[in-house]
TrEMBL record:
This is Lipoprotein. Keywords: Signal. Residues 1-26 form the signal peptide.
């Protein structure tokens, strides 16, 4: 759940209506109740929990660690304006022989967060409860999914993110009102770093078609990216974009020239017609925006 306050963000059952957030950000990430309750416990000590200070005790250190964590198959995550992005995560969970990871009230997952550390994050998304398969009595291979809703993001969230693994054993305690002295918690932080990026689009149009050899071809296009503040696409301005060309029977593009997008993200340049082939624009990407290539536009040179 997104809390647009200076303190922190908390997943779980807190109602957004209780906080001052923009109307466009009223969406709530789809975190299952079980993992949300576990997240509440994990963050109780940091003040990021809904019941921080309202329940008794302090969790004990659970004998469990996370390793070999993979987030989105090792790739950065790009998010558009409307579609929910389901990010696969996997990890190895090593635990003590006395820890029953298959108990109904044991939960393990991955948290993706923006901030200096797990305890000091500005905002985060939790996975669902992981599905784990034992490889030995004390080691399991686990998989889960983190759902990222673009309506829960703001442009300031684009950039560097990290991941952490967390596990909670409730040991029969009521997840909504546990005695924390009887609850075990384990956190491995950080496990990964990656970029959360604003999805980009790039178009191209080369004309006229057909064209006589030696005549001028005008190549236009537009570079745009997702704006999470209003959930629309806007031109990405003043960015270097390469105009590339490949001959009709070739698989390789070569760079013809580099130009910059204008104040609305529009692209325009000219070249001389030589042989049949495809023109495209290519954007290398930035920290906040992924690389993208336009689909090639064929020009028949006569």
């Amino acid at each position: 759940m997104r809390i647009r306050a200076t303190v922190a963000a908390v997943t779980g059952a807190l109602a957004l209506s209780a906080f001052a957030v923009p109307a466009a950000q009223a969406a709530e990430p789809k975190v299952p109740a079980d993992i949300a309750a576990a997240s509440e416990v994990v963050h109780a000590d940091s003040g990021r929990s809904a019941f921080a200070g309202a329940v008794e005790g302090e969790p004990y250190a659970l004998n469990a660690t996370f390793s070999s964590v993979k987030v989105n198959n090792g790739k950065n995550i790009s998010v558009g304006t409307t579609n929910l992005v389901k990010v696969p995560v996997s990890f190895k969970l090593t635990h003590g022989a006395d820890v029953d990871i298959h108990a109904d009230d044991f939960f393990a997952g991955i948290e993706l967060y923006r901030g200096a550390s797990f305890e000091e994050s500005a905002f985060f998304f939790d996975s669902n409860d992981a599905s784990c398969t034992d490889s030995s009595a004390t080691v399991a291979n686990c998989k889960a999914t983190v759902e990222i809703d673009p309506f829960a993001l703001l442009n300031e969230d684009a950039g560097s993110w990290k991941a952490a693994g967390f596990a909670v054993a409730f040991n029969g305690e009521n997840p909504d009102e546990p005695n924390l002295d009887k609850v075990g918690v384990a956190v491995t932080d950080p496990t990964n770093s990656f970029k959360l990026q604003r999805f980009s689009k790039l178009t191209v149009n080369a004309s006229p078609e057909p064209v006589k050899k030696g005549k001028t071809i005008t190549v236009t296009g537009k570079l745009s990216r997702a704006n999470w503040d209003d959930n629309k696409y806007h031109g990405y301005t003043n960015q270097s974009v390469k105009l590339q060309f490949r001959k009709k029977n070739s698989d390789t593009y070569t760079t013809v020239k580099t130009i910059k997008s204008n104040s609305t993200g529009e692209l325009k340049t000219t070249v001389k017609a030589s042989v049949d082939g495809y023109f495209r624009y290519s954007f290398a990407g930035t920290t906040t925006t992924p690389a993208v290539n336009a689909a090639g536009d064929f020009v028949d040179v006569q």
